[in-house]
Each structure stands twice: as structure tokens, then as C-alpha cells.
Specification:
Radius of gyration: 18 Å
CATH class of the largest domain: Alpha Beta
Helix content: 25-40%
Number of helices: 7
CATH architecture of the largest domain: 2-Layer Sandwich
Distance between the termini: 48 Å
CATH topology of the largest domain: Nucleotidyltransferase, domain 5
Mean pLDDT: 94
Number of strands: 12
Low-confidence stretches: 228-238
CATH superfamily of the largest domain: ATPase, nucleotide binding domain
Shape: globular
Strand content: 25-35%
Order of helices and strands: EEEHEHEHEEEEEHEHEHH
Structural class: alpha/beta
């Protein structure tokens, strides 16, 4: 089974090609250029380097949010275009679940965090005691204070002593998180900090084996909150 995975939900752009449990190639860019400039050239580069054609792909995976509103739209538009044109099944997976899959086989509570601006984070809560992450709550947009309270409560409920934090939502509030969570708070190393298209591909393969696909036409981004334009429209400012 050949899976093409695209991630553009955050400032990172990632593309991976995965075949029968093996990562063939992964491209990862976290530098300046916009996803509209980088994503499709990365797809071509990955396919060409592995001597594959897009028509050979059995499924296309994409991160569906939360994350950057613009980045999510770019990724989904690219995936839908390829999928609908070539009749390739699509699999959409939470950005935070993909990030949680950077870790496996640990008893710690794994909490991916994305910077949501406006003094909030997008947060997820996962157990990764097995190979694949198990969700312990819904993805939320939250203040750092509410996130800390929720994480502490889940640690008590699940009997977990340590919390692993990862994602760009850690950086603005790292001192606060470490002060409130104490020695139980572990910050992921740099190479495990951000979303990886290879993690997305691995999760997608698990779903593809069960033929658990999404409808390409109806697949939508998961924003968790209104865009700035929608917020201002609701306030009567637009």
C-alpha cells in the first residue's frame, strides 16, 4: 500500500511517501516560504525521488487541524485536487493526534500544543502507552491556565506522573508551564517537537487497512474557533 501524506497545518510543511510500513522519503521545511510555494513542489520531489507516479498512490493523508487557517486550506485544496482528479481515497487526521504520534510506549501524558495566538493554545491530551496515540479528550482552544488545570486533572484520573509537552504552543508559555507543572513537566527535544508527515502516514496506513476513508468532497478543516474575519463579522465590525 502506497500512501502520500501532506501536512501544512502549521508553519511547518511536510510531505512523506510511505509503502507497506516503510518510510520511503520525507521532506520537512520550517523556513520562511509559504505553503503555497513549497507544498506541491515537495510532492513532486518526493514522488520523483522514489520513482513513483501519483496515479500509483493508494491513499492520500492530510492534517485537518487545528492549525493555521490558511495552511489548512492550502493542504486540503491540494489533497482534494489530486484525490478527486485521480479517484484516490483520502484520510484526514487531527494535527494534534499526528504530533502525539511522535511518541510511543511511554506512560506519560502527551500533550501537543499549537500557538493559537490571542493568548490561547490548541491542545490535545493523549495516552501513548501503545504504538498509536489514544485520545483522552477532545482537541480544544484554551488559555494556558485552563490547559494546565485540565492536564493536572487528567494525570490524576489516568494515574500518570509525567507530562510531555510538544509543539510551537509550548514556546510562548514554557516558563509558566514548567513552573505550574513542576518536575513532572518534560519538554520534547527539538527533533520531536513539530508535526511530521511520516507520523501522519503511519496513522493513515492503520486506517487505510480498515478502508476507513473520508469523503473528499465533504472533508473540512477543524478550526476549533472562528477566524478573525468571522469573529469581526459576528461583532458587526465587517
Amino acid at each position: 500500500m502506497l500512501i502520500l501524506a501532506l501536512d501544512s497545518a502549521t508553519p511547518v510543511a511536510g510531505v512523506a511517501l510511505w509503502e507497506d510500513g516503510k518510510l520511503l522519503r520525507e521532506e520537512f521545511v520550517n523556513y520562511k516560504k509559504t505553503h503555497s510555494e513549497t507544498l506541491m513542489p515537495m510532492v513532486k520531489q518526493v514522488l520523483d525521488a522514489c520513482e513513483k507516479q501519483i496515479k500509483q498512490v493508494n491513499a492520500i493523508a492530510v492534517t485537518i487541524g487545528p492549525g493555521s487557517f490558511t495552511g489548512l486550506r492550502i493542504g486540503l485544496a491540494a489533497v482534494k485536487g489530486m484525490a478527486l482528479a485521480l479517484d484516490i481515497p483520502v484520510i484526514g487526521i487531527s494535527t494534534l493526534e499526528v504530533m502525539a504520534h511522535n511518541f510511543s510506549y511511554t506512560d506519560a501524558l502527551v500533550c501537543p500544543l499549537l500557538d493559537a495566538r490571542k493568548k490561547e493554545v490548541y491542545a490535545g491530551f493523549f495516552s501513548v502507552a501503545q504504538r498509536y496515540p489514544q485520545r483522552l479528550g477532545e482537541d480544544v482552544a484554551s488559555s494556558p491556565e485552563k490547559f494546565v488545570s485540565a492536564a493536572q486533572r487528567l494525570c490524576q484520573q489516568e494515574g500518570k506522573e509525567q507530562i510531555i509537552l510538544l509543539g510551537d504552543g509550548v514556546y510562548p508559555y514554557q516558563s509558566y508551564f514548567q513552573e505550574e507543572l513542576g518536575s513532572n513537566c518534560l519538554i520534547a527535544p527539538t527533533h520531536l517537537m513539530l508535526p511530521r508527515a511520516s507520523a501522519l502516514a503511519d496513522l493513515a496506513e492503520s486506517r487505510a487497512k480498515d478502508e476507513n476513508y473520508d469523503d473528499a468532497l465533504s472533508l473540512r478543516p477543524v478550526y476549533l474557533r472562528l477566524s478573525e474575519a468571522e469573529y469581526r463579522l459576528g461583532k458587526g465590525e465587517l
